[in-house]
Amino acid sequence: MTHIGYHASHEQFKSSELLRYVQQAEQAGFTHALSSDHFHPWGEAQGQSGFAWSWLGAAMQATPSLSYRVVNAPGDRYHPAIIAQAAATLAEMFPNRFWITVGSGQALNEHITGGKWLAKGDRNARLKECVDIMRALWAGETVNHKGFVCVEDAKLYSRPEIPPLIIGAAVTAKTAEWLGSWADGLITVSQPHDKLKEVVEAFQRGGGTGKPMLLKVQISYDKTEDSARQKAHQQWRNNIFKNTVMTELRTPEQFDAVGQFVQPNELDGHVRISADVNQHIGWLEQDIELGFSELLLHNVNREQEQFIEIFGEKVLPALQ
Predict the structure, then answer these.
(1) Which CATH number covers residue 121?
(2) Is 165 exposed, middle or buried (CB count within 10 Å of its CB: 0-12, 13-18, 19+)?
(3) Has residue 320 got a pLDDT over 90?
(4) pTM, full prediction
């Protein structure tokens, strides 16, 4: 069975609004939620960036039937020992309801501490170090480590009986194949079906066969296709570039500078835009056929209540 989740986009909404939306999503029949974890939004039009870890505690208490995932980049803005402690606390308080998804990060969020922004290969190596550190801490070990990150005499005293899974984030097939050997699962983003299939096959080829696969599905649903497209363009046009660009730009102003050249028709392939619920169901059924165990739906425009209500009424029953 594929679970359907709601994406809580901290870049676009105040934390108090997102708390209300996940409560509405729970009532509508969504079973999971994915939280972003940003310091900056992708552009000035989005305009928010609440602290995910404060919000997660409140959200998990307020929606007792939802399981949560958070996208996190340990190693730069966050020290992995602190993330291990934060994740362990949530997993102890809310057993079997929390997984952490990890990636190598974007300069947009991570450069704020003033450190050197590493090349992609080094960021990947640092990520693996961080994962090993977190797993050792959850196992009750006293950790000392010197590498891309340093840890001295760290031991977690409050640990969950069942540690959270660590789900690796990948956009490309190359990264997905690397993740297959060490991550507990995969999270990726929606893209054209053939590209998405390549990512899935690479993850499985690298050792991920049988592990959970999560898909963040970027859609824009509204009453008409024109309005769905226009509202997606207003909110999400800065997010359609190749990963080599998305990870390197440093400020919302820089994203706005490149996003101003994006035309509304260029969103196709990056955002699934349609006012037809049946079209969305068809797209999601193709994702299920690829083997994804969780589809985490991100309606990139601002019409969240409408999206939750309509998808709860028509899409979720069709898929479940």
Answers:
(1) 3.20.20.30
(2) middle
(3) no
(4) 0.97
The pLDDT tens digits of the residues spanning 16-55 come to: 999 999 999 999 999 999 999 999 999 999 999 999 999 9
Q: Residue 120 to residues 107, 126, 134, 216, 243: CA-CA distances in angstroms?
A: 11, 10, 21, 22, 11
d(CA 4, CA 318): 11
Per-residue pLDDT, averaged over 84-96, amounts to 98
* pLDDT value of position 248: 97
Would you state the structure tokens that stand for residue 226, as one six-digit string?
């024109």
Question: What is the Cα–Cα distance from 76 to 192, expressed in whole angstroms?
Answer: 31
Interacting residues of 173 by C-beta distance below 8 A, sequence separation 6+: 198, 199, 201, 202
Domains of the chain: total: 1
Q: What angle do CA 130, 104, 235 make, to 5 degrees?
A: 140
Please give the structure tokens belonging to residue 76: 């730069």
The domain in which residue 195 lies consists of 3-319
Looking at residue 126, its pLDDT comes to: 98
> Going by C-beta distance under 8 Å and a sequence separation of 6 or more, which residues neighbour residue 65?
26, 31
pLDDT value for 33? 98
Are 299 and 219 in contact, with CB atoms under 8 Å apart? yes
CB 299 within 8 A of CB 220: yes
Q: What are the DSSP E strand ranges found in 94-203?
A: 98-102, 143-146, 150-154, 166-169, 185-189
